[in-house]
Design brief:
With about 270 residues, the chain is α/β, with parallel strands linked by helices. It is elongated and about 70 Å long. Helix 2 runs parallel beside helix 4 and helix 6 runs parallel beside helix 8. The strands form 4 sheets. Strands 2-1-6-5-7 form a 5-stranded parallel β-sheet. A two-stranded antiparallel sheet has the order 3-4. Strands 8-9 form a two-stranded antiparallel sheet. About 25% of the residues are buried. Bound molecules: 6-chloroguanine (6GU).
């Protein structure tokens, strides 16, 4: 897999030389090139922004440096269009399913905007050469796309074959099955008068799996109830259905729905 990142602050991407992603680059499991956008300007001041048409606060990124930058990496011999990811709080929300989808691509290009964003015509023009995907990390605003690219490259890169040493760690982690991961414990078995749950010391692997699944459901219901309602209930065990019932959900056909909102029972006063 090849990644290209364009930014006016290439040093922001330096952490991608560290840890698992850094090692994967050295091992040749992924290629990652960071480009300085200003290299693609032609004026004396190397300017990349200008005032917005229609008025308003802030500055907008000029189209021509972006076109020059993106054209510099177009491979006319490539069989498929690269995907151009435009980090933006106005994009579709990034999640684990999208990370898996993007990990299947051969070539991902990231265009880090700053200021109020990139002239919209760049995205329209780029459709000719790229599959364009404006993507957001979530419903809050960052100063630019660089931090979002750090997050996305790490989330996607770790899914590539060989990047994570033990691929089994990708199976049970949060969001792998649409739920949050169960709590984890290590030695000592008693710490500051707190015991590790007995079942985890029992050596009974079936019981442990059942316990962890239940914890996963309870934690997801408490922290991210909307994920419970998005669950596919096709293969739930009797025990899992019982836990869901206890948590206030009913399983109908292949779906999970809230039985009644807590406190929705009419009360007399
Ligand atoms: Cl991808 N970019 C910016 N600038 N802000 C964000 C974001 C992205 N995701 C959430 N906030």
């Amino acid at each position: 897999m090849r990644f290209d990142v364009f930014s006016i602050f290439p040093q922001y991407l330096a952490p991608l030389e560290l840890s698992l992603i850094g090692k994967a680059r050295k091992d040749g499991l992924l290629e990652l090139n960071v480009h300085e956008l200003r290299e693609f300007t032609t004026d004396k001041h190397r300017s990349v922004d200008d005032t917005p048409y229609g008025g308003g606060a802030g500055m907008v990124m000029k189209p021509e440096p972006w076109a020059q930058a993106l054209e510099s990496i177009i491979d006319t011999a490539a069989e498929t269009k690269p995907t151009l990811i435009v980090p933006s709080p106005a994009g579709e929300v990034f999640n684990q399913a999208l990370a898996y989808e993007l990990a299947e691509q051969e070539h991902l290009v990231f265009a880090c905007g700053r200021y109020e964003g990139i002239d919209e015509r760049v995205l329209e023009w780029a459709e000719e050469h790229f599959t364009v995907r404006p993507i957001s990390l979530g419903d809050y605003v960052l100063n630019g796309g660089e931090v979002a690219v750090l997050a996305m490259v790490e989330a996607i890169g770790r899914l590539l074959p060989g990047v994570v040493g033990n691929p089994e760690s990708l199976v049970e982690e949060s969001h792998a099955d649409g739920l949050l991961e169960y709590p984890v414990y290590t030695k000592p078995s008693t710490w500051r008068e707190r015991d590790v749950p007995d079942v985890l010391l029992s050596g009974n692997h079936a019981k442990i799996a059942k316990y962890r699944k239940e914890q996963s459901l309870r934690r997801t219901s408490a922290r991210r109830p909307e994920l419970i309602e998005q669950m596919d209930a096709t293969n739930l065990s009797k025990a899992e259905r019982n836990t869901l019932w206890e948590l206030g959900y009913a399983v109908v056909d292949h779906k999970v729905a809230r039985r009644a909102a807590p406190g929705s029972t009419p009360t007399q006063d």
